Amino acid sequence: MLYQLLLNYVDSFGFLNVFKYITFRSGLSFFTSLTIVLIVGGPFIKFFSKQKILNPIRDDGPEEHIIKKIGTPTMGGLIILFGLLISVLCWADLSNINVLFCIYIAITFGLLGAFDDYKKIRNSNSSGISSKFKIISQIILAIIGVSFFYFFVDYKEITNLYFPFFKNLILNLGWFFIPFSVFVIIGSSNAVNLTDGLDGLATVPVILVAGCFAFISYVTGNIVFSSYLQIPYIEGTGEISIFCSAIIGSCLGFLWFNAPPAKIFMGDTGSLSLGGSLGAIGIITKHEIVLAITGGLFVLEAFSVIVQVISFKLTGRRIFKMAPIHHHFEKKGWPESTVVIRFWIISIILAMIGLATLKLR
Questions:
Q1: Quick one: residue 261, left, alpha or beta (phi over 0 = left, psi -120 to 50 = alpha)?
Q2: What's the mean pLDDT in 9-23?
Q3: Does residue 260 have a cis bond before it (omega within 30 degrees)?
Q4: Is 83's pLDDT higher than 80?
Q5: Where is average pLDDT lowest: 66-80, 125-139, 265-279?
Q6: Is the dihedral of CA 68, 300, 210, 247 positive or negative?
Q7: Between 359 and 153, whose confidence is greater?
Q8: CB atoms < 10 A from the CB of 188, how many?
Q9: The pTM is what?
Q10: pLDDT-based confidence at 61, cuts 50/70/90?
Q11: Strands, E, within 186-252: which ranges?
């Protein structure tokens, strides 16, 4: 909104031309979301604590969690979303279908996560809404969003799936584009949700993936850079850099409060919303497979849960001491901070590999 308002005065004030540059507005988006979260974070935490909006601890989780984490406020994702959405509304082009698609996914999945958190708080347990209700809701929300995006987007090759490391390996999904995109969004959303189990564990990888896609979306929306890197040029995709920058700023501000020992947890409100948004960004930029690489930690966490469930149902035995896999290492005696930092290191390596795919073709 603020961006469109300033554009009306460009002819009168030449210096306002700087707001036409995506890089400049991305910087503003980052600092705006960061500042908002840092300012409102403290009062939010005090309010949540006073209102007993506390995070229920899993009874079957690591024993020290019951001691150290009980009484910690949750639904911190509201803080992240507040900074993210205000920043995007200020600095992004709201007539851009890509931006609107990301906003839709962030809000709807955030509301679903908030409902899940509310159920957990009200019932004083970690169950929340049923898995069946959650997945059906995600499917419906994703289908609506992807269908509108597919209908309004002005890009003929939108149904193509591009493979990294190969210049000409392209698969046209055709009608299968919609279910595939729904799978990407839901998979990304739940993978981030499963990763969010330790202080700061999910926050930093989300920042790294968003940082990678801030760059990817910018070069994808620039005809010169996309031609040089031999990646598909998609007009208007550069605006997603502003959305990604807002994610980075909001999460970095949230990390100030979420760093060990966490003063607040993001809850499903934040993890479902951020994960779904990253999935949407991967679809928009046509780098869905690169998303799986840069967000490989999220994939690993989700895969560990799938393997654990299948193994237990088929054989009655568990592969890991506890799933998701970060709890497995806790059960093995790793301190929480060790697990978190080592998983951060893995995320950094995967982010670098993901970015390398842009040139290695």
A1: beta
A2: 79
A3: no
A4: yes
A5: 66-80
A6: negative
A7: 153
A8: 31
A9: 0.93
A10: low
A11: none
DSSP class per residue in 67-132 = HHTTT-B--THHHHHHHHHHHHHHHS-TT-HHHHHHHHHHHHHHHHHHHHHHHHHHHTSS--S-HH
- Quick check: 180 and 173 in contact, CB under 8 A? yes
- 311-328 burial, b for 16+ CB within 10 Å, e for fewer? eeeeeeeeebebbbbbbb
CB within 8 Å of 257: residues ≥ 6 apart: 41, 42, 45, 76, 79, 263, 264
On whether the CB atoms of residues 234 and 159 are closer than 8 A, the answer is: no
C-alpha to C-alpha distance for 127 and 140, rounded to whole angstroms? 22
Average pLDDT over residues 213-242: 94
Per the listing, tokens 């509301």 go with 111
Round the average pLDDT of the chain to a whole number and report it: 90
Query: What's the CA gap between 343 and 359, in Å, rounded?
Result: 26
Sign for the CA dihedral angle at 138, 140, 141, 147 comes to positive
The Cβ-side half-sphere exposure at 173, using a 13 Å CA radius, reads 18
Tokens read off for 238: 């550069």
The token duo for 51 is 């209102």
The residues spanned by each domain of the chain are: 2-356
With contact defined as beta carbons under 8 Å apart, do 232 and 162 qualify? Answer: yes
The answer to whether residues 26 and 219 touch, using CB atoms and an 8 Å cutoff, is no
